[in-house]
Structures are given as structure tokens and as C-alpha cells.
Amino acid sequence: MLFTQGEIQRQVDELAGRLESSLADGEVPILVGLMRGSLVLMADLVRRLSSVHVDFLSLSRFSQSESGSGRARIEKDLEIDITGRRIIFVEDVVDTGLTLSYLTSSFEARNPKSIEVLALLDKRARRIIDIPIDFAGFEIGDEFVLGYGLDYAQLYRNVPFLFGVDDLDVLVRQPDAYFSFARELMRGGEEAQQAAK
After folding, report:
1. Which residues make Cβ contacts (< 8 Å) with residue 102, sequence separation at least 6?
2. For residue 65, what pLDDT is reported?
């Protein structure tokens, strides 16, 4: 157990408060969620802000052998015109910084007013490109994390807390291996989640 449901909600409150207090009078930022991991964070964040526009991006990543470049490609682009607007990329976790570096440089050509990053998890231990995180939540080590939007094989996104997987081989062999653990702690609520830390 890394962060309980209550700890996450308090952190999202703080991130929303910092973002809200940074807005100029009448300013309506565009929150850009990176699908699919940011979905839960985006939903919680949007409900805490007074006025915001929302859009989503979807990226496909190719390995070196598939594309020759090892780079990402935008599969689902924004529908909102960002010219002259304040853009805030919302990420579940920032690790290497490669994706956000690519997106930031790509979107600068669209002439936004500014581009910022809000991330619930900062996995600085894996950083390759030192991309600035303007609104950072928790800093974590180099661990595989599930819950609160983060998945393995599309599983565990609905878990309201975040937990680290200590044996990735088990998860690869049996993707639902942690279901009983997650269900038990979901039923037990905050008290059970705190006890599991």
C-alpha cells in the first residue's frame, strides 16, 4: 500500500487548490488528460475547480523494432483550439519525461499561452528528460504502481487507492493476482488501507 483513498483525495484537494489559486480572474484553463491513466484523476480534479475546459489525448507508442524510431504518435488529438490558451497536461504518473517532452514541443507549435504539467505521481528515479512538473503530488520510487487509474492489462483502474507490485512476474503470469487484495482493502475502507501500509 502506497497511498490510501483518503490520502489521494487530500492530495487532489491540494493540487486543485494550488491550480485554482494560480488562475487569473476569468481565466479558464484547458486540462488535457492523457488517456487512459489520467481519467480518474481528471474526474476528481474537474469537480474541484470553478471553471475549466477538458480534452483528451491518446498516444500510441512504438518500440524501436516496430517503427524504427521508438517514438510516440498522437492517435486521438485535441478537439479544442488551444491558440492563446493556458494548457495543463494532466498525468497519472511522470516517469522518464519522454512523453511529456514530446507533447510539449509538439504543442508549442500550436501557439498556446502556456503549457504546464500536473501529475499525481512523480517517479523522478526514472527521469531521462528533466521535464518540469508545475503541480506535483506524491514522489515515488521506481516501483510498478496500480490503482486510481493506473492499470495492468486494463485491470485495477477502478481501485481507489495506489499500491506497488513487488513481484511483477506474478502479475505478468496472472493479471488478476492482486484482485483479492484490492477487493479486501476496498471493502475495509480507509482503516484497512492504513493498516496495509
Report:
1. 71, 72
2. 43
Angle among Cα 168, 175, 196 to the nearest 5 degrees reads 65
- What's the angle, vertex CA 55, arms to CA 155 and CA 115, rounded to 5? 110
- Over residues 115-153, the pLDDT tens digits come to 999 999 999 999 999 999 999 999 999 999 999 999 999
Radius of gyration of the chain (CA): 17
Catalytic residues: 95
Residue 70 zone, left/alpha/beta (φ > 0; ψ -120 to 50; rest): left
Count of other CB atoms within 10 angstroms of residue 40: 22
pTM: 0.90
Domains in the chain: ranges and CATH:
5-145 (3.40.50.2020)
Q: Which residues contact 41 (CB under 8 A, 6 or more apart)?
A: 12, 33, 90, 92, 120, 148, 149
